[in-house]
Amino acid sequence: MSAIPIRERREDRVDLLVRVTLHTDGSSSVVRLCNISARGALVEGDDLPETGRTVDLQRGATAVQGRIIWRAGNKAGISFSGRTEVEYWFPEAEPQNSVDKAFQRIAREMHRQDKREPVVAPHHRSQITADDMERSAAALEELADALAGEPDLFGRYATQLQALDISAQLLRKLALRED
Description:
two-stranded antiparallel sheet
């Protein structure tokens, strides 16, 4: 089965990128939650369960049961058995709000600048390009992936790993504005 076309979804999805645990048949793995609505989600990871399998998606104390309704490569769509509160899946509210406010402030500043003028790093006055931001985001993401693969570290530093994800998202948003 292929992905459900956006126009056929029952509810809008919210894009985010956080690590969650996917449980099925006594096993579990850490996956990325790419987007979510009250009734379903898109996850990305290695060795995802086959289509039709029942799964539990968990992030801290928040959990929801569902079923894999499609799978393509390292991505899968989950239809939830019931509804979930979307905001419970976000990184902690205060840090996410801080990131959003920082991004909005930076975006306003960049909008005021002439589009041809590059952003300048405040400390060493070198120009920062969209490519620099993308490479930095990829490096943060790679570090977060490596650390998340260590169960002991993931358990102790889940919040900090989410902060790395948020930082990578922020850099990618800035890179898009530079292009």
